[in-house]
Each structure stands twice: as structure tokens, then as C-alpha cells.
Design goal:
With 262 residues, this protein is an alpha/beta fold. Helices cover 28% and strands 26% of the residues. The protein is built from nine helices and 14 strands. The strands form three sheets. It has an eight-stranded mixed beta sheet with strand order 5-4-3-10-11-14-12-13. The radius of gyration is 17 Å and the shape is globular.
């Protein structure tokens, strides 16, 4: 009889079914061939190249950088290479098997002294929340904090701890934040106000209108306004990784990565 694979085991990190990719940026990353949305583009050196170039332009040796929604760790490992032995990367990934894969990649590159893998979700307060994901899909990046009580039939709920970034950092200075948290970006900002006002880090963020409304109860323009009140401009990201024109009003429903600069 064929073994039944339970939903929470479907994408578990198992070295026999994952592979290591030597990236174009000089670090090695564990990826799963089941993941079409992130791992497959990573395997052909085609994943978020503009974003990677922006990180390369922005993150410096000795910096403290934060990856909120680290997933497999593509950007977190790139940051770790850039900050060097004197720097630090905080990589937040609450979904179990992705956190396991990320931790394995950190060890694979000898980055254990410079990357801190955190299994919490960032939000606006310290609490336990529901992380909802669809374990039998080909997109490993769809996990999000859930506001509704009941998941769809193809979804699974897990309880995860949430923390504000301000509480995690304390007095440590932050130079860069990347956040891609499926609509919780506004909540992350609310939990990082002291850090943003004090340190003025550059921010690389996704704008996802549908998910922002579902998870944070606001839209993309509300997030832009929220960060504008903190002294940030929202800018397009050019293909070469440099900042483009300022975005006064965002009208797209397509998830788009943008830059926020003080």
C-alpha cells in the first residue's frame, strides 16, 4: 500500500528530495523541485534579479540587515555574503519546513555566526497568530497570517509566535529591511516604528493589494501613506537594481516589489 503523505509533511525538508543550487551570487542554497514559484527560477538564475541587484547596491560589510519572510533564504543568504563576518542578518521564517531548509543553507555556507534564523512572524505586537498555507501547491511563498476563522479545504493552519521588530532589535542598529509577508507588511511597519524613525534603513517591499486588504485591512496606498508619515518615499525598482521614479499612487493589482527610501 502506498504511504499516505499528510499535508504538513508534503514539503518537509528532506535532503533526499531537495537539491543544492550554486547561485550566481556565490552562495549555495537548498531548494525543492516541487516549488515552481521560487525554486525553479532560482535554479535557472532568473529569480528576482533586480531585487538582488538592489540588495547588492545597498547592503554593506558590517551592516545588520533584516529579511522578513525569508522563505528559502535567497535574499537572506545574499545579504549574509555582503555583510561579511562583522555583520549580521536576522532572517524571519515561521513556516517549519522553510525554516529548516533555510537553516541548512546557512550551515552549508558557513554563515551560522552571521545569520540568525528566527522562527517567528513579525507583526505589530507580541502574540500567537494563525499562519495559513496551502501545503499541496507549487508555490512555497503563499503562507500568510490569517484573519478569518476557517481555512479553505486545501489550506492548513498553524499557530506561530509573532513579535514586533522593535522588540527583537532593541538598541541594535538596522541598515536594511526586505519584507515580503503576503499582506502583513503594514503590521510589520507598525511594529518597527522606533527602528524606522531611529535608523532610517532602506526597505525593499512587496505591494500586494489583495493580500494587504485580507491580512492588514488596508491597501497598497495605505502602506505607502503609512511609510510616508515616517519620512519614506516609495520608488519603482529598475531592472538594474537602482531606484526609479517616485510612486505617488499605486493602482496595480499585480504583486510588485518596490523600494522605500528615507
Amino acid at each position: 500500500m502506498r504511504e499516505q503523505i499528510l499535508p504538513h509533511d508534503f514539503h518537509r525538508f528532506d535532503r533526499s528530495s531537495w537539491v543544492i543550487k550554486e547561485t550566481a551570487f556565490g552562495y549555495r542554497l537548498w531548494v525543492s523541485l516541487d516549488d515552481l514559484a521560487i525554486a525553479r527560477p532560482v535554479l535557472v538564475d532568473a529569480y528576482e534579479l533586480a531585487e538582488a541587484r538592489f540588495i547588492e547596491h545597498t547592503v554593506r560589510e558590517g551592516d545588520l540587515a533584516v529579511d522578513v519572510g525569508a522563505n528559502l533564504g535567497f535574499h537572506a543568504l545574499h545579504m549574509a555574503k555582503l555583510v561579511g563576518p562583522a555583520g549580521r542578518v536576522l532572517a524571519f521564517e515561521p513556516l517549519g519546513y522553510l525554516g529548516d531548509a533555510l537553516s541548512a543553507s546557512v550551515a552549508e555556507n558557513g554563515f551560522s555566526e552571521r545569520v540568525e534564523v528566527r522562527r517567528e512572524a513579525l507583526s505589530d505586537c507580541a502574540e500567537e497568530a494563525v499562519l495559513r498555507h496551502a501545503p499541496r501547491t507549487a508555490n512555497f511563498g503563499g503562507a500568510h497570517l490569517a484573519r478569518s476563522a476557517t481555512p479553505e479545504i486545501f489550506q492548513t493552519d498553524e499557530r506561530v509566535p509573532c513579535v514586533p521588530l522593535d522588540d527583537v532589535l532593541g538598541e541594535r542598529r538596522c541598515a536594511f529591511i526586505k519584507m515580503d509577508v503576503e499582506g502583513a507588511e503594514s503590521r510589520v511597519v507598525n511594529g518597527a516604528r522606533r527602528t524606522l524613525e531611529r535608523d532610517r534603513p532602506a526597505i525593499l517591499s512587496e505591494l500586494h493589494e489583495t493580500q494587504l486588504r485580507a491580512v492588514s485591512g488596508c491597501g497598497a496606498n495605505d502602506l505607502i501613506a503609512q511609510l510616508r508619515e515616517l519620512g519614506y518615499r516609495c520608488l519603482h525598482l529598475r531592472a538594474d537594481g537602482t531606484p526609479g521614479d517616485e510612486i505617488a499612487t499605486f493602482s496595480s493589482t499585480v504583486p510588485t516589489n518596490v523600494i522605500f527610501l528615507p
